[in-house]
Design brief:
2 helices, globular, alpha+beta
Length: about 70
């Protein structure tokens, strides 16, 4: 999230599932980092999962697809 030139990251899981995190026009790096910090305080072990579930609030799209 903090690297300005990176627009999208993709990951392929061991099961072949594809995951993408994409910055959209509303992406705000400061808001995204602050939002994740708030989730980390409240969700501890599941903060990443909650962030990915709700990341549209800060201008990110999380997409996952088939194998």
């Amino acid at each position: 999230m903090t690297a300005d030139p990176i627009y999208m990251i993709s990951v392929i899981g061991n099961n072949g599932r594809q995951y993408y995190l994409i910055k959209n026009e509303e992406f705000d790096k400061g808001k995204a980092l602050q939002y994740y910090d708030e989730l980390f305080e409240n969700f501890e072990g599941s903060s990443v999962k909650e962030f990915l579930r709700t990341c549209r609030k800060v201008g990110l799209n999380f997409v996952y697809g088939g194998e």
